[in-house]
Amino acid sequence: MEMKAITQCWGPSGREGKISELIKSEAEKYADEVYTDALGNLIAHKKGSEKKIMLAAHMDEIGVVVTYIDENGFLRFSNIGGVYIKRLLNRRVEFANGVIGVIDTESDNKEMKLSKMFIDIGASTKAEAESKVSVGDMAVFVGDYIETDSVIISKALDNRIGCAALLEVMERASGDNDVYFCFTAQEEVGLRGAKAVAYSVAPEYALAVDVTDTGDTPSADKMAVKLGGGAAVKVMDRSVICNADVRSLLIELAKRDGIPYQLEVMTDGGTDAGAIHTSRDGVKTGGVSIPTRYIHSPSEMASKADYNAAVKLLTAFCEYKF
Fold it and tell me: What element of type H or E holds 212?
């Protein structure tokens, strides 16, 4: 599947229908069965007789939701997921029906409070605005897709690039393991989809596939992950301390196959691994991350080489004889 199509598809947390259908159309080419659960997770199963493995990549993206429409047609809103308030001014958002709005703020909003911000959709009255959007409608941030020889820039690389990786691994991987490729819902609002699907699948081994921060720009906090440094093998984040055996195996496979890799300790934020590893009586869980700059912005940036390294490492894991 083209990276542009999967990143540009509309799909905030809790409203993943469009992106789910897009991924499903590709997954059906490679999986033995594809189905959706009650929470909106999409599960593609490649049947096997050996170890039950789960790969999880969340398909939702951050966004905003309309909370009130005033008499002049301006929309008040709240966040869906980790929205950085200080980066919101003059950002464009898109609703499911294609309506575009621009975020602005009241002139006295010196502290940059979300409660003093609004979305302008070009309406002049409440009635005109209500003919286009309603309270409860969700919107995602607009960020065009740009690709160079070395990097991809787009909105929603978090975590559509992880979803693209799972689709490619699904096409490539062979072997006897029983592999579930899970495209999870509502990760950005609390790892909710992963919790449900991990309980249902009950895997023996699991990997969360997501983006991770980098520490290689002047604005970044110090972190031993850089763009172009290879697939990031997760050690821990705020939600999980990865299983030592899984982490060691990923490193072993990377060295064996000459796959560039780096170690990831993420001190802020979590991934689906946090929900998966405590499911039922516990799951041996790790993570493979794709280094990404400017996460939770409309201009996230990832390296093509890092993406390819992640795909190779994930494929090797799925094919491994435990």
Answer: strand 205-212
**All structural domains of the chain:** 3-61+155-319 (3.40.630.10), 63-141 (2.40.30.40)
For residue 51, the SS3 value is coil
For residue 22, the SS3 value is: helix
Place of tokens 């709005």: 101
- pLDDT tens digit string along 128-146? 999 999 999 999 999 999 9
Measured distance CA(236)–CA(134) in Å, rounded: 41
Backbone angles phi, psi at 119, to 5 degrees: -110, 130
- For β-strands 231-237 and 261-265, DSSP reports them as parallel
Residue 151: other Cβ atoms inside 10 A = 17
Active-site residue 61, yes or no?
A: no
Distance CA(322)–CA(70), nearest Å, equals: 60
Q: What is the rounded CA–CA span in Å between residue 289 and residue 56?
A: 11
Task: Note whether 232 and 261 are within 8 A (CB).
Answer: yes
Name 226's bridge partners.
none
Q: Give pLDDT tens digits for 236-289.
A: 999 999 999 999 999 999 999 999 999 999 988 899 999 999 999 999 999 999
Check if the beta carbon of residue 91 is closer than 8 Å to that of residue 141.
yes
Give every CB contact of residue 265 below 8 A, 6+ residues apart in sequence: 223, 224, 235, 236, 237
User: What secondary structure letter does DSSP report for 204?
Assistant: S
Structure tokens at 282: 């516990």
Residue-wise burial string across 77-115, b where 16 or more C-beta atoms lie within 10 A, e elsewhere: bebbbebeeeebeebebbbbeebebebbbeeeeeeeebe
Residue 75: Cβ within 10 Å count: 28
Q: How many CB atoms lie within 10 A of CB 258?
A: 8
Output the pTM of the full model.
0.96
The catalytic position among 187, 188, 264, 300 is 187
